[in-house]
Amino acid sequence: MTTVTTRTIEYAADGLTMIGHLALPAGVDRRPAVLVGPEGVGLSDVERHRADALAELGYVALAFDLHGGRYLGDPEEMLARCMPLLADPDRMRGIGHAALDVLRAEPRTDPDRIAAVGYGTGGAIALELGRDGVDLRAIATVNGLTTGRPGEAARIRCPVWAGVGSEDPIMPPAQRNAFTAEMQAAGVDWRLVVYGGALHAFHHPPVDHIVLPGVGYHPQHAQRAWRDVVDLLAECLPVTE
């Protein structure tokens, strides 16, 4: 365990003032870095703690914002913002690039060694950065198996790992198949893990507000998915080279 330093960072994206959470490992040297994207409800302590955990492993980590510092616990409000966003690759890329610029500007970040890990909408944004040709070492998307504009997946320059619950009605088998077909056709180094019996957002601890149907926490698979993400980073973005 290393000593982690955290701070809040404000930056502009999507016409909003975003409020990200930066976590830094001990030391003063440059380190590989990870962009952490939240579910559609927005940045919460769940993603902040994940960024802190990555910093404990030796990474610079930025958990980025989606909604200008707001957490959208009302499902209708969340869908009203996220559905148009998910339908607009350029908007998603804009949000991702703005966060990536913040992460790259951090003096502790090695700008040539960055990965993107995202959940739900945050995972879709991570994928769009790859489809935009961003030089990333790895992309991980958990229950965010979105497909992009035709041909653009060929611009992905790194391995892609994806995780999804077998019982996720928001990312059903047809969506999984479309995603994997896109990755395969593009020649991407891709992996898909299907966690048996898990629903959408299975990785996210229970919340104290109404959630969409088909959303539910699966503690065992949540731990497994986290280990799978950490293993991906260890393979593609080791802390020491």
Automatic annotation (TrEMBL):
Annotated Pfam families: DLH
Keyword set, alphabetical order: Hydrolase
One GO MF term attached to the UniProt entry: hydrolase activity
InterPro entries according to UniProt: AB_hydrolase_fold, Dienelactn_hydro, FrsA_esterase
Limits of the Dienelactone hydrolase domain: 20-235
Superkingdom: Bacteria
Record family assignment: Belongs to the AB hydrolase superfamily.
Protein name: Dienelactone hydrolase family protein
